[in-house]
Amino acid sequence: MNNPFLLVKETINRLRYKIPHNPKQVQIEITNRCNMDCPMCQREDLGIELEHMEWSKFTTVVDKLENQENITLTGWGEPFIHPQVFDMIAYCKERGHRVMITSNGLFTKPSMVDDILNSGLDSVTFSIDSVNGNETVVEGHTSSKVYESIEAVVRGRKNGMPSVRLQATIHSGCENDLYDVIRYGARIGCDVVNVGRLDRQFRPNLKRPDAKEERLIFLKADEIAHAAGIQLDWLQFSVSQGITRFFYKLLRKKLHKSGSYCLKTFDYAYVTREGDVTPCCLLPNSKMGSLLNNDLKGIWRNGKFDYFRKNYRDTCGDCDLWTIDQVDTPQTNTCSPQEQLVKV
């Protein structure tokens, strides 16, 4: 956000947790099928159908989005295996939306790189937890077959479009893998490396750094990113660049009233392959309404959604993926799948 006035206005609204009239970020679950089987992935634990979204449902959902929302066409699967993914990108772009996709980079055919570059896609994020030469993250997104595809997308861009991000999760004892991902992203010309916490609710044996370790890893990662000339986004510490980054670092613990609200629920909505709006990809049963029958604004500001925002811990348990402070430690994890059912 480059406009200082809009930045100040949104910051004040976030500090007060004054919900905007419409979500700015809408994620549409176009498929739950995948051509990889990562040990950390929870898609088979959520009770969701591993299928593609039907075209008729997709167009109905997008037609309900009338405020030039930022749309991410990604669910719990690999979006580029959906047979109509490029038609979906075009449909969104024709209606004035900014379109993003998160991919594992394991393309099914050589022409996929050119298809992506010619699609009008605004941003593509590749999930990658290790790079060649130091692959100790055995539980994450790691495949030696993806690097060539990622590098081809970066090389083939014109005028820096689409922007390319790398998405990494930080596993305990694997910080060197993260540092290598940052260096790799800078070396090949990516724009951003984003780091997320590891979710352990269905995989309690997975190890992640505790709060003190997490901060030390961030400080080192931030130093490496700065030296390499690449932007490092890490929700718990710092995002964006310039004045936005400065204010975020200064106010990040207050932007969700010190944990009283989840940062995810301020301006984001998730739409399942069946057209249901939920607060998060991790909550398939917390249905706030259906876009097949209702408009997004009505669902976004209805009593059920407002109740969820104020009482999200009743549903989300100890989840801390989108809070600043850690709720649990690698040794404890009290959030159970049953706690994912909304209680309203």
Could you give the topology of this structure?
Elements: H1 4-16, E1 25-28, H2 55-63, E2 70-72, H3 85-94, E3 98-103, H4 112-117, E4 123-127, H5 147-156, E5 163-169, H6 175-188, E6 192-196, H7 211-228, E7 231-234, H8 242-251, E8 268-271, E9 276-278, E10 289-290, H9 296-300, H10 303-310, H11 312-316
Helix pairs in contact: 1-8, 6-7
Briefly summarize what is shown:
The chain is 31% helix and 12% strand. It is an alpha/beta fold and 344 residues long.
Strand fraction equals 5-15%
Biggest sheet features: 10 strands, mixed
Mean pLDDT: 88
User: What is the count of helical runs?
Assistant: 11
Low-confidence stretches: 329-344
Number of strands: 10
Category from helices, strands and their pairing: alpha/beta
Order of strands in the sheet with the most strands? 7-6-5-4-3-2-1-8-9-10
The SSE order reads HEHEHEHEHEHEHEHEEEHHH
Helix fraction, binned, reads 25-40%
Radius of gyration: 19 Å
Shape: globular
Cα distance, first to last residue?
Answer: 35 Å
Could you list some keywords that capture this structure?
344 residues; alpha/beta; ten-stranded mixed β-sheet; 11 helices; globular; disordered C terminus
Characterise the protein shown here.
The protein has 344 residues and is of the alpha/beta class. 31% of the residues lie in helices and 12% in strands. It has eleven helices and ten strands. Helix 6 (175-188) runs parallel beside helix 7 (211-228).
